[in-house]
Amino acid sequence: MQMLIQHSSGVTMNALITASGLSRKTVYARYPNMSALLLSVLRQMLDFEMAPLVMPEGPDWRRRLRAFIGILLDEMSEPHAHVLRRILLMDSSLFEEVKPRIEQLMVDRYINPLNAFFTDLVERDLIPPQDTMFAAETLMQMVLQEAQRCFFDDGVDKDSSIFVCKVARLICGGLVAGPDMLEP
């Protein structure tokens, strides 16, 4: 995996075999080509249970949400997330194979906790009634898009706090908007 982090699409089967210390025969018996090897790595990366991300505690729901967005963006920018993106860029045909698992991880770890948080805010009359699942999914898409931008910009914008603050302000402002403001 370290070679995938460092060399991205430039890594070859021969380089991986050499780094592994295994014989070519052993590796090719298990992985007949690079796609099979990459698919195995992807499955291994995605074959674990991740507990739902816990919403940070605090008296102000807006600050709690901002902290959650920061944690979410940090996770989406960790090396394992970059490896996942690199592998999918190396062989995009693998995406369909792992897409259901990626989607399930996103829902279980990030979207469901956000939805529960927003639903709780509605139930406590802190925000007006609204489609909380849509709000959670939209926020998730915004963070994923920023993580993707940073990945392709090679991490140029290392200070994620500006994005986190702007998105938190945008989401918080939208959540408290009355339904009449949003009707056509």
Automatic annotation (TrEMBL):
GO MF, one example: DNA-binding transcription factor activity
Protein name: AcrR family transcriptional regulator
Pfam families, sorted: TetR_C_7
Keyword Transcription regulation: yes
Higher taxonomy: Bacteria, Pseudomonadati, Pseudomonadota, Alphaproteobacteria, Sphingomonadales
Keywords assigned by UniProt, alphabetized: DNA-binding, Transcription, Transcription regulation
Keyword Protein biosynthesis belongs to the record: no
Alphabetized Gene3D superfamilies for the sequence: Tetracycline Repressor, domain 2 (1.10.357.10)
Domain of life: Bacteria
SUPFAM superfamilies named among the record's database cross-references: Homeodomain-like, Tetracyclin repressor-like, C-terminal domain
InterPro entries found in the cross-reference section: Homeodomain-like_sf, HTH-type_TetR-like_transc_reg, Tet_transcr_reg_TetR-rel_C_sf, TetR_C_Proteobacteria
Domain Transcriptional regulator TetR C-terminal Proteobacteria type: 64-148
